[in-house]
Amino acid sequence: MLRFGLAAIVAVPALVLAGCGADGGGGSGQGSRPDGAQVTIRVPADAPTISAAVSLARPGDLVLVAPGVYHESVRVGTARVTLRGENRDAVVIDGQLRQPNGVVVTAPGVAVENLTVRNNTQNGVLVTGSASAATGTPGHGGYDTGDEPVAFLKSFLVSHVTATRNGLYGIYAFSAQDGAIEHSYASGSADSGIYVGQCKPCRIVVRDNVAELNAVGFEGTNAGGEMYVVGNRFVGNRVGLTTNSDHQEKLLPQQGSHVVGNLVAANQQGATPEQADGGWGIGVGIDGGSDNQVVRNRIEGNANAGLVITATADIPPNGNQVVDNTFTANGVDVGWTFPTATRGRGNCLRGNELTTTAPEGLATTASCPAADQPATPSGTWASPKAPRGIPFTDVAAPAAQPQLPDATTAGATAVPDVPALPDVARVPLPSAALLVDRALVRTP
C-alpha cells in the first residue's frame, strides 16, 4: 500500500498538481503512479479539503480525513473510493444550512465511514444512481425524477456515520442496490433518519443503527425485494418505522421487506421535527406495502399504535405477515384502518404477544396463514393529539458514538458487489436495552 506523505508528494508532484484545478466532483486524478497502486490521501496534509482529496482519488484509494469541521459538500463520483474520518465525532462535514447535501455518492463500490454530517438543508449522506436526484430537489416521499429512466447505483456502504440536524434525510439510499447502512446514528431529520427509496430488488441491509429524534426513524418507499431492516433501535422519534408505496417514486408497489429483530419504542417524542403528514405516536406503519415480513420485533410504549396497516391512495396492502412480535403498552397494539374504499387482502398475524387490536380479535380472525386471502377488516381507535414539532436545527446533539475499529491504520474498504444478507431465522427478539449505550432517548 502506497501512502501519501512528504516523500510521496516530492516523488510524484504530477499527481498532486492534477487535483489543483478539480471542482470536487470526484474526478479520477491523473498522475504518475504504478498501475493498480492504491494510495491513502490525507486531509488536510495532502489536500486542503475533502473535495480536493476526492478529486485526486482513483479506484481503490482511501481518503482519510483528520479531525476538524469542514464546510463543504463532498461528491464522490469515482468507483471504489473509501471516504473515512479518523475520528467519527471529531470529523464533521457541516453544511451551515447552506449546502443541500453533506456527501453525495454517485459511483459504485464507495464506502463512507466514521464521520459526522450535519446542518444540511436536504440530506446528510445521499447514495444514488439517479442523475436527477443527485442535483434535484426532493419532495415529501422522496425524489420525483419525472421521466428519467430508473438507473441503479450498485454496491455501497455507509458505516459508523453520524447524521444529525439535516433538513430532510440523514442517510438516504435512492435508486440504489446491493448496499448496507450499518452501525450508524441519525437524529434531527425533518423527514426520516434513514431512508431507502425506489429499488427492486434492493438487496440492501439496514442493520445495527440508532435513529432517534427524527420525524420518522426509518422509511422504505417503493423499496423491496431482499430488503432487510434488522437489529436497529428506532426509539424516540415521532414515528418509528414505515414501509410504504408512493406514486411520487417509481417501482410501485412497495413489497417484500423483512423487518426483523428491531426495538421500536416510545415514538411520540415532542422535541422532534414534524413531518408534513403529521404522523405521531406510531411504532411501525405499513402504508400500501405488500408481502412484508414483520418478525420478532419489540414494539412498546407507542402512544397511538404499535403497528398500523393502511392503504396509500389506490394502492392496497396485501399479504403482510406480523409474526412473533412482542407488543407492550401501546395505545393499540395492532390497528388496521382504511379511511377509503381501498383495502388489502391476506394480511395476517401469528404468535405475537399482544393485548389490543382494532378491529378486536384480529389474532383469531386474521391468523396466519391466510390461505384464502380474506379482505382485511378496518377498525378505529382513539388517537392522542400530536404535539407541535420543533425546527430540525433545535434537536439535541447526539452522544459520542462508537468508532470504526482501526480507522487510522486499516486500508481502504473493499465493498462487496452484494452485501451479506442476514439469515432472518437466526435474528432474535431484541432486549428493551438494545443499543441503549448510543442513544439519548431511553425507554421506560
Automatic annotation (TrEMBL):
Gene3D superfamilies: Single-stranded right-handed beta-helix, Pectin lyase-like. It comes from the Bacteria. The keyword Signal applies. The keyword Repeat applies. This is Nitrous oxidase accessory protein NosD. PROSITE patterns: PROKAR_LIPOPROTEIN. Residues 101-245 form the Right handed beta helix domain. Keywords: Repeat, Signal. Residues 1-18 form the signal peptide.
